[in-house]
Specification:
By secondary structure, the protein is mainly beta. It contains no helices and 25 strands. The strands form six sheets. Strands 1-18-17-16-15 form a five-stranded mixed sheet, with no helix packed on it. Strands 2-25-24-23 form a four-stranded antiparallel sheet, with no helix packed on it. Strands 3-4-5-6 form a four-stranded antiparallel sheet, with no helix packed on it. It is globular and about 45 Å long.
């Protein structure tokens, strides 16, 4: 359940910096956590959630085989993509986001060990195509069907991307070695991140791939901040590493920053991955740093 990182150097662009600090006058949000487990799973990863509460992710069975997951309150759907490998223990398939039409987006490893992006809707898989791309991770989708993610070009360079119909916007975040794209909201704002020359994660939003706004969790240590989902109101979630390299989720809600730790976990390994317009967060926690993932859903109230 990990992203493979490449080490290619990308050019930097101008940016604006936003420090995520809690505003004293802002209403305080409260979070109610509940576990999300696929039946029979030894591990569950929840990556995305739409406004109807349908969750996208993956789960691992007792044989160590990973399956894609589209989960409602009443049904678990684990469709098989013939493009993907089924080797036990491999990162064979996962869904990372799902839109209002219940079209999910994800990626898998094919039989050659290459990353293949796809959408899944109406019972059908469709590969995401980018001309000249050697590998594609598709991880975000909005209600218009625009797709965000990461691709490796024919020269081996890694980029974030936004694919709106047939229009491709290549995104190279400033000052990072390789860009990862994660999500896109209904206004075309994309979240991207990467590591700088010091090995610190840095995170941005962008709409055109030219102007970038940076986000940094105030409690982040030298490993930095990873951005994930953005909703249609501009709320954002992600993961940060504290000074002890422990992992925490975070939520940026207009004027205030919140740290997220699932109460059932070790308080050292919680990640926030998905977010919908009702400020429902989904992600993963474990009971030991780096341990098997348990999915969670966190609802918010004031």
């Amino acid at each position: 359940m990990t992203h493979r990182q490449n080490s290619w150097i990308l050019g930097g662009l101008a940016l604006a910096f936003i420090a995520l600090t809690a505003a004293a006058e802002a209403p305080t949000l409260k979070f109610t956590f509940s576990d999300v487990n696929a039946p029979g799973a030894t591990e569950t990863d929840t990556y995305g959630i739409n406004n109807a509460g349908v969750i996208a992710g993956d789960w691992v069975d007792s044989a160590g085989v990973q399956h894609g997951m589209v989960l409602t309150a009443k049904k678990l759907l684990s469709p098989t993509n013939k493009t993907c490998t089924t080797t036990p223990g491999s990162t064979s398939i996962a869904f990372y986001a799902i839109n209002s039409a219940d079209v999910a987006v994800g990626w898998c490893l094919n039989n050659n060990g290459k990353e293949v992006g796809f959408t899944f809707g109406g019972g059908k898989f469709t590969n995401v195509a980018i001309k000249g791309a050697l590998e594609i991770e598709s991880t975000g989708i909005n209600n218009a069907g625009d797709i965000a993610g990461t691709y490796v070009d024919s020269a081996g360079n890694q980029h974030g991307f936004l694919l709106a119909g047939t229009k491709l916007t290549t995104i190279d975040a400033p000052g990072v070695q390789a860009t990862f794209g994660w999500s896109v909201n209904n206004y075309g704002v994309v979240t991207v991140y990467g590591t700088n020359s010091a090995g610190t994660y840095v995170s941005f939003t962008t709409k055109d791939g030219k102007k970038f706004t940076q986000y940094s969790a105030p409690q982040a240590g030298s490993l930095g901040t990873v951005i994930h989902a953005i909703d249609s109101k501009g709320d954002i979630d992600g993961t940060y590493y504290d000074s002890a390299s422990n992992v925490h989720g975070w939520l940026w809600n207009k004027t205030a920053y919140y740290s997220l730790d699932d109460p059932n976990g070790c308080k050292c390994d919680t990640r926030a991955d998905g977010l919908n317009d009702t400020l429902t967060v989904v992600g993963r926690y474990s009971t030991s740093l780096g341990g098997a993932s348990v999915g969670y859903k966190a609802t918010t109230s004031q």
